[in-house]
């Protein structure tokens, strides 16, 4: 196994295209990023390894995210250098790219220097010494690597497909849950349950009593439900209802005075950023209020069982209407308070909250909100009247619990499948690393042998890969 410096094997030429001034055209423009840009002129017409000469991270930190391979006619950014083979029968340039790209953190990054603007000099790259197998072996390694990459891409594609199917399965489970299809057998065995129409009457009576006791405000009349509004047919014994018909309180949010926010405490204010897609992020830029301010805002203090909903987002992305069911564990160490543009649904005791957590994730029901959102330009806002009038299916109370039990069991199976898919993805990545180590195994052994040998005192200083 021979060891040669890159300056003995390669020609070096820095890029000549200023990235800011490059005019788009027919030729690829290699930059420091992973994606190619385009240019109306080309600098090279060959096979080359393109190495960025500046850190990917900057700010005094040495790193290289990409070492590129390019062939044919292409332009090169001025902060990169192209390495081309002096003799294709001695060095396969794709082998060099494979070697440097896979070992860049061991071979190239340690050579970077600088305080603020960390850079890599061409001279240091030229003095890198690499173990060089015979040309046939180089090409064999390259072809084997391509084969493994193709197999890994196929495996990753299959795993991604499985994740897509799993996501659809979750959606299908929730969809059939709120349509009553999951509990068709349960209904066949429970003919004597109280229908949802009676449940609605009982809830209305409970709310009327609360109004009489001045515990809640009297609600404004809700519009009647038309057949055109109903997105799907419900089983016998179920009812369509407006959301406010089954709510004890609907909180539209409270605008806390941001100058009074603190960085720590036991009274956390929940803002839009704390509610991600169906996930509560208490650690996302948390803010707190002191005890006195908290006492003044008892009306927006949250409880376990409340369902939060984001009321502002981007119209095109539909990155709003995320709901989160608060649980006891969410209140460990802090009381939680509702900020503006975050709504809160507080249901009657006769409602299983988890069932409605499923409902509020259904795309067909969410379309009611997305189609009526207001706001300027691309911003979307949900009004309190829209939430009050949100149309939702109401099963009998006993069936709500049966739905939750069955959905939890099915989603637990989905969680197990997702864990297995994630494990398979990790195994695929580990396999690739193992193959790479095997591909360069005899190179590394030869390198160690050479490093342990005596180096002549008058030999030029080299940097060994």
Helix content: 25-40%
Q: What structural category do the secondary elements indicate?
A: alpha+beta
What is the second-level CATH architecture of the largest domain?
A: Alpha-Beta Complex
The radius of gyration computed from the alpha-carbon positions, rounded to a whole number of angstroms, is 32 Å
Q: Number of folding domains?
A: 2
CATH superfamily of the largest domain: DNA methylase specificity domains
**Percentage of residues in strands:** 15-25%
Name the strands of the widest sheet in spatial order: 2-7-5-6-3-4
Distance between the termini: 14 Å
- Describe the global form: elongated
What's the pLDDT, averaged over the residues?
Answer: 88
Largest sheet: 6 strands, mixed
Number of helices: 13
**CATH third-tier fold name of the largest domain:** Adenine-n6-DNA-methyltransferase TaqI, Chain A, domain 2
Poorly predicted tracts of residues: 442-464
Account of the 3D structure:
It is built from 13 helices and 22 strands. With 465 residues, the chain is α+β, with helices and mostly antiparallel strands. A 6-stranded mixed sheet has the order 2-7-5-6-3-4. Strands 10-19-15-17 form a 4-stranded antiparallel sheet, covered by helices on one side. α5 (135-179) packs antiparallel against α12 (397-439). The radius of gyration is 32 Å and the shape is elongated.
